[in-house]
Amino acid sequence: MKQTITLLVTALLMMAGVQTAQAQKMKIYFTSGEPVGYDIQKIDRIEFEEALPVEEPEYVDLGLPSGTLWATCNIGSSGPEEVGNFYAWGETETKDTYSWATYQFCNGSYLTMNKYCTDEYYGTVDGLKSLEPADDAATTLYGDGWSIPTKEQFEELVNETYTTCNRTTQNDVEGLKVTSRTTGKSIFLPIGGYRDGTSSYDTNSGYYWTKDLYGGIDNLARSFSVEVDSYSAWDSKSRRCGLNIRPVRAHVAPPTYNLCPDDNHPHAIDLYLKSGTKWACCNVGANSPEDVGYYFAWGETEPKTTYTENNYFIRWNEVSSHDELKPEYDAATVNMGSPWHMPSYEQLEELQQRCRAVEWTEINGVKGVIIAKKLFLPVSGRYYGDELDYPYTPTFWTSTIYSSERTPNMPNPSWGGAYIPSFYLGESAWDITHLPFYLGLPIRAVCE
Ligand SMILES: [Zn+2]
Predict the structure, then answer these.
(1) Domain range for residue 35?
(2) Contacts of 435 (CB under 8 A, 6+ apart)
(3) Domain count, the chain
(4) Least confident of 102-106, 151-155, 252-256, 383-387
(5) Domain assignment present for 293
């Protein structure tokens, strides 16, 4: 988001009640210290840079003893099958030529290392054997908690006690599929060879950096390799070469979130969405973010004890205009009052675009997902009859009726239904799908 000086100066001068034509100087008042004056004639423009955090990558829980979570994609890729970026070891930017001449941590040759050196034969000894956070492309890109895997983390990943590994083809791309024996989740490591100089080599294999120096031979660093019929966490490559990176997230104790300023719920949570939509901090009928609140059949405004086709009498062509629920049938508006209402499909889609990767966490012993670090959705499941289905995932109703025109790629139900978010236990990725009207779901309100 950028604004020009014209707009800003005009705004400042209007506030001061001064004519723009008369103004020659602009003063900027800092929160601490003296104001600084600038000659307006000499200013070309002022830019405000958007400082939204880089979105964290999707990851899966493979049930590994260390608690390590593995990203589902390489750095610089837009999907699991894309190899993404190539980095020299310890560098955080990609480049065209991978050589000692361009390598950040030496002075032009492998005998002039100036960082990560344990033997004076290779350069200036500093004793560092593992990448520091500033030289870890995963940490610099995604923030604390994310890093390039250690050799031990790769060893754990391919330990047969915890996972099965298969060289396979996924969407026409070859790679190694690693599947957890406990959670059933998997990751796919595509093969893309490696870069040396300006060329690609060994494209029948895949090479991934670890964050560890080889040990004893300081121009080498540990790598993980996927060969045609084997894989190894004991490989190494010259530090100058360009390899792929699959980030990991260290197991961390669930963070404490400051979700609400006080106990006067509901609060309108600002996620800086373009539409101006704010999401309620808790579900309809809930007393706190972790409280699941009431369950409703779609278009009903009171909870029931059982939710079936047989006790659902809403005629959706009466309660909705086009495919949106009318306010008198909106459980959020009825129970919480205006301006609260149920989110539309577009508002749910905007939320998903803002935060494609959710975090699973626990608040006061209640599992759920955190969206954009600010919005908590407790696990709720949904009622069918008087049974709670999928009690380990959150969801809620939107106000929008499914239509094949709106979402042609979604399976067409034989019954009528409305759109909902669909989360998967332990997975960061989430989808939008739909459910039949008569099921009992919580509702998370929005306002503008
Ligand atoms: Zn609140």
Answers:
(1) 2-51
(2) 382, 395, 417, 418, 420, 441
(3) 3
(4) 252-256
(5) yes
